[in-house]
Amino acid sequence: MAPDASGGLRNPSTAIKSKHALKKGPWTTSEDMILVEYVKKHGEGNWNAVQRNSGLMRCGKSCRLRWANHLRPNLKKGAFSAEEEKLIVELHAKLGNKWARMAAQLPGRTDNEIKNYWNTRLKRRQRAGLPVYPEEVAQQEKQLQLNSSSSVLASSHRPNQTQLNFYETFNSQQKIAPPQNQPNTPYINQQLKLYRANNGSLALSLATSNSSFTPSVLPAAPFFNQGLSNPLPIPSLLQYNSLNYGINAGPEIGVVGLPSIQSPMQGAVTPAASSSDFVMGATSSDGAEDQYDVETDFSRCNNSGLLEDLFGESQALACPEKQEDPFVAAAGNVHEETAAFEFGQGNASSDNNYEGPETKAPGEAIAPMDDDLMNLLDNFPLSVPIPDWDEGNGSESPVLTNGTNGTIENQPDASQQNPVAASTGTANQDWNFGSCLWNNMPSIY
DNA sequence: AATTGGGGCAACCGCGTGTGC
DNA sequence: GGCACACGCGGTTGCCCCAAT
C-alpha cells in the first residue's frame, strides 16, 4: 500500500500537524455535531465555508463527504437487502461503475456504500469462480439488447473478413441537432470508429454525415458523461455484450498504446504521421507471460473533454453538402461500416434519451474534417494493454473489446468473451468489470 | 493465545465539470 | 477567454474487526 502522501495524516494520532493544518482521518462525534449544527443552520453546500465559520478543522471536501455518507438524514444504515442487492447488480450491468447514478436509484444509500459493496462482492465472486453477474441478469439483459439490435445487425454491411481482423473496435455515433434558428437543417451524424486492418495497424476515424432524424427508444443507454452539455451517447454494456462485439486482437498486438490522460502508457505508440490518419502500430507484447492488459481508460477520456472537443469541432466543421469520407483508414483495407448504431444527442438529464438503432446506407453523406480535427484525433487517448487474466482462458489471442458496438471477428465462441454471460473465475482482480463498459473501453474478456 | 488474512467500511486523492468574476 | 473556486465522481488506501489457523 502506498504511503499516505500527506505524510501519515491518515493516522489519527498524527492527524493534526499544526494549529492551521486541516485534520484528516476519522471523524469524532464532536466534529459530527459541529457539522450537523452547521448544516442545520446554513444548509448544504458551500462546504469550504464550514471550516471558516464553524471552526471545524476539516476541508470542505471532507465535510461534504462526511455529511453525504454519514450525517445527512434519511440515510439507510446496515446491510443491503436482497432487493437492493439485486438492483445493484442490475444497475451495474447497465451503468457500470457509475456509483452516484446507482445511488440515485437506491434511496438512503450512498455511492460509497454501493461502491464498497460492489468491490467486495466482485472480489468474493471472482475468488469463488462465480460469474460477476447472475445468469438471470445476463440473460435478461442479453435478450433486451438482442431485441433492440437485431434489426441493425440484419442490415449491417459487414466488412470483408479477409480485410479486417476486427472491426468497429470503437464505434460511437451521436446526432447533433440543427441550430434552433435553422430548424430545417439536417441532423448531423457523427461517428467515431477504430479499425484494425489485417496488417495489424489500427486506424481511428471520425466521420460526420447528415441524415433524417427518426427518434426511437432503446433501453439502458449509459452515456459517456452525463455532465456533458452535449453528451456523447454511449451504447450500453449490454448492447455490446449481447452482440458479442469485440476485437480479436491477435498476440501481435499484445500491447497497443496511445497516450492515456490518466494512465501511464503501457505500450509503444506509433502516432500517425499524417494528421488525417490515426494509426497505432501494432507492437509486440511480452510474450513470456502473455501479460496482456487492456485499458483504454475512456472514463478519463470522456472527462478530459477531448471527445467533447472532438465532436464539438466536428459539429462546427460538418458540412452537409460535401460527401466525402474524411478519413482514410491508413491501414489499408478498411471497410467503412455504415450500419452502426446511431445515438441521438443525449439529454444530460436522461440516460435513455437517445435514438437508434437505425441503419445508414453505404456511402451516406459524410462531411470532411480539417486538419485541426485530425490533430485532435492524433491526441485521442487510447491504450490497449492486455490483461493477464486472459491467460486463464487458454487463449493466445486476447480479445480486445469495447463498450460500444464493436464487432468480434474470428471469434469461434464469442460467449466466452462475454462477461455477463460467461464471467469466470479466471479473471483476476485486475479485471474491473466496469472496464468492459464504453466509458472504460476497450478491455479484454 | 498469537498470528494471519480477508471483509467491511471510512476517508482521502486526483481529476473533471460547472459557475461566477 | 482565463482564472479561481466549489462541487461531484470514481478510484484507492488505511484501519478495524473477526474468523481461521
From TrEMBL:
Residue ranges of domain HTH myb-type in the record: 19-71, 72-126
Subcellular localization: Nucleus
Cross-referenced PANTHER family: TRANSCRIPTION FACTOR MYB33-RELATED, TRANSCRIPTION FACTOR MYB65
Record protein name field: Transcription factor
An annotated GO BP: pollen sperm cell differentiation
Species in which this protein is naturally found: Sesamum alatum
Ranges of residues in domain Myb-like: 19-71, 72-122
Primary localization class, coarse: nucleus
InterPro entries: Homeodomain-like_sf, Myb_dom, SANT/Myb
Pfam families with a match to the protein in the record: Myb_DNA-binding
GO molecular function per UniProt: DNA binding; DNA-binding transcription factor activity
Keywords, sorted A to Z: Activator, DNA-binding, Nucleus, Repeat, Transcription, Transcription regulation
Segments for region (Disordered): 1-22, 391-426
A cellular component term, taken from the record's GO annotations: pollen tube
Biased composition (Polar residues): 394-426
Biological role stated in the UniProt entry: Transcription factor.
